[in-house]
Design a protein that fits this description.
Shape of chain A: globular
Low-confidence stretches of chain B: none
Oligomer: heterodimer
Structural class of chain B: mainly beta
Structural class of chain A: mainly beta
Low-confidence stretches of chain A: none
Helix content of chain B: under 10%
Largest interface: A-B, 22 and 18 residues
Distance between the termini of chain A: 35 Å
Mean pLDDT of chain B: 97
Radius of gyration of chain A: 13 Å
Number of strands of chain B: 11
Number of helices of chain B: 0
Largest sheet of chain B: 7 strands, mixed
Largest sheet of chain A: 7 strands, mixed
Order of helices and strands of chain A: EEEEEEEEEEE
Number of strands of chain A: 11
Distance between the termini of chain B: 39 Å
Chain lengths: 112, 115
């Protein structure tokens, strides 16, 4: 199975400052169809997960443009340009290039 | 409002069975890949199973193969997860997830396996 590894696991950030979360896969997520199926999800306390990013860098409808995704191969990053209070959540990467699909263990973003 | 609503969770003894249901509202199960994802208490997310739009191809995480079965009923706009031979480590909130032009998650249904 493809192992997804987050870093850091905990991320204290000052309001208005940028934040960056890394996700590394145990093998390349480049699919034979030419796409890379790497998603990012946000789970606020007590809520269901929310889809933020698909195929590495494409924002889901309604997601603020302060969220951006990048990367290729085995290394991926979720960036928040200016953290707001509503961004307090656990962020998960997930790969859908291989079966079984697998999530990272998550990064907990908190306000410093 | 576009939503998925799960039901069927509860308390069951080890070795028992449960059938989870998920009904779409404003979301068409027929045309979509559908998934079940679970989250054990205080833990992260774990993908459990997928079914493709035609309902024929199905995929499972190894830990549930042979025990869980995913299915869909397009006429009822519903997704199901039949869970047999339940184990204590199946205890989790189970989310129904739809993949279409947007990705939709239900609110989850709690399954507790305990004697």
């Amino acid at each position: 199975d493809v192992v997804m590894t987050h870093s850091p696991l905990s991320l204290p950030v000052t309001l208005g400052q940028p934040a960056s979360i890394s996700c590394r896969s145990s093998q390349s997520l480049a699919h034979s169809d030419g796409n890379t199926y790497l998603d990012w999800f946000q789970q606020r306390p007590g809520q269901s997960p929310r889809h933020l990013i698909y195929q590495v860098s494409k924002r889901e409808s309604g997601v603020p443009d302060r969220f951006s995704g990048s990367g290729s191969g085995t290394d991926f990053t979720l960036k928040i340009s200016r953290v707001e209070a509503e961004d307090v959540a656990v962020y998960y990467c997930m790969q859908r290039s291989y079966w079984p699909h697998t999530f990272g263990q998550g990064t907990k973003l908190e306000i410093k | 409002e576009v939503q998925l609503v799960e039901s069927g969770g509860g308390l069951v003894q080890p070795g028992g069975s449960l059938r989870l249901s998920c009904v779409g509202s404003g979301f068409t199960v027929r045309n979509s890949w559908m998934s079940w994802v679970r989250q054990a208490p205080g833990e992260g997310l774990e993908w459990v199973a997928n079914v493709e739009p035609e309902g024929i191809e199905k995929y499972y995480v190894d830990s549930v193969k042979g025990r869980f079965s995913i299915s869909k009923d397009d006429a009822r706009n519903s997704l199901y997860l039949q869970m047999n031979s339940l184990r204590v480590d199946d205890t989790a909130v189970y989310f129904c997830v739809g993949w279409s032009t947007e990705n939709i998650w239900g609110q989850g249904t709690r399954v507790t396996v305990s004697s």
